[in-house]
Write a structure and sequence with these properties.
The complex is a heterodimer of chains A (about 150) and B (about 180). Chain A is mainly α. Chain A is built from seven helices and three strands, in the order ααααβααββα. Chain A has a three-stranded antiparallel sheet with strand order 1-3-2. In chain A, α2 crosses α3. In chain B, α3 crosses α4. The longest helix of chain B has 26 residues. The chains are: A mainly alpha (about 150), B mainly alpha (about 180).
């Protein structure tokens, strides 16, 4: 080895193909000591292996599920008139106007307007309440069957 | 370093589900390998990968499209791992008797013995040195990219990798196999 031989840092740069120094490459090509040192380093680094299993599928699928949940549009926050609500609920105009005191609405300059999201929530909550309050027993008494003689 | 198509990132930013699936699939392998090599625990790697992908999704508005995408992703991944290490250090303080054995999770994973030896060796290094070596040797990053990611000067990045290689050589020459 002489004073011009490559140090370990230069050899590592050459191993990882990050050396732009033409002089170092030329020296490596001509110096047997540096070639031996470089070959030793290559053997050592090539043997360093840490096998990684083929993983990450669960993480990707869970992340995609979360992303799709987040990107779903929230309830449409549109404003509707009585006619539109009637059309949407498939009832008559008068049904809606008669039920006005039961439905969430607001009035702008004398005009009745509905927020669709609030209306949806209201209808959904009322339906849930109605389900829970459903009578366990039939209200009507069973009609006795007449015995035919 | 992995190259991601610019259009894919733009579509992902607009909320395209197909772009999200394609992007996550491209990021899966390098990020999982990075987390696995640093933690040597498959479950931890899966969890950190999921958290990283979700953070990428939630913070995509903050990404500046004039710059490369992957360094931004690596910065998020690195922060996730540092957060995890910090939380682990708190666990160590609270219940030292459970972690005193210093056993890596190698027994629970399907890695080779050589991988476990290398992991034990890397565990003797500081986190920053270990990370620099993993990024250089396994992830194929350049010294410049490592320096940028770790926010250190270029010579420091080189010296960290060099130091790690010297320590690994010492470890294996001592016959601690």
């Amino acid at each position: 080895m002489n004073g011009r031989c490559l140090n370990e840092e230069q050899l590592i740069e050459l191993y990882y193909a990050e050396s732009d120094c033409a002089e170092a490459k030329a020296h490596l090509a001509s110096c047997p000591d540096c070639q031996n040192a470089f070959a030793r380093l290559c053997n050592e680094l090539v043997e360093l292996d840490m096998a990684v299993p083929d993983g990450g599928h669960r993480a990707v699928s869970e992340a995609l599920k979360a992303v799709s949940r987040q990107s779903q549009p929230a309830g449409q926050d549109t404003i509707m008139t009585i006619e539109e609500v009637a059309q949407w609920l498939k009832v008559s105009y008068h049904n809606v106007s008669n039920m006005l005191h039961l439905l969430p609405h607001f009035i702008i300059d004398g005009q009745v307007r509905f927020n669709r999201r609030l209306l949806e929530n209201h209808l959904f909550n009322n339906r849930a309440g109605a389900d829970s309050k459903a009578p366990q027993q039939p209200l009507r008494k069973p009609v006795p069957i007449k015995r035919v003689v | 370093m992995l190259k991601i198509e610019k259009q894919l990132v733009i579509d992902f930013g607009k909320g395209d589900a197909k772009a999200a699936a394609a992007l996550f699939e491209q990021l899966r392998r390098p990020l999982f390998a990075y987390f696995y090599r640093l933690s040597f625990d498959r479950c931890v790697a899966e969890d950190l990968l999921q958290e990283t992908l979700l953070t990428i999704h939630s913070r995509i508005e903050t990404y500046n499209h004039e710059f490369a995408f992957m360094p931004w992703v690596w910065a998020i991944a690195r922060n996730k791992f540092l957060e995890f290490k910090r939380s682990q250090s708190r666990v160590v303080r609270l219940i030292p008797q459970l972690v005193r054995s210093n056993q890596p999770a190698a027994s629970f994973c399907d890695a080779s013995d050589t991988g476990a030896d290398l992991h034990n060796c890397l565990d003797t290094l500081s986190e920053s040195t270990k990370e620099a070596f993993v990024l250089k040797h396994f992830q194929g990053m350049t010294f410049n990219e490592i320096a940028e990611l770790q926010q250190i000067p270029l010579p420091t990045a080189k010296s960290r990798v060099l130091f790690a290689i010297k320590k690994i050589r010492e470890y294996f020459n001592r016959g601690e196999l």
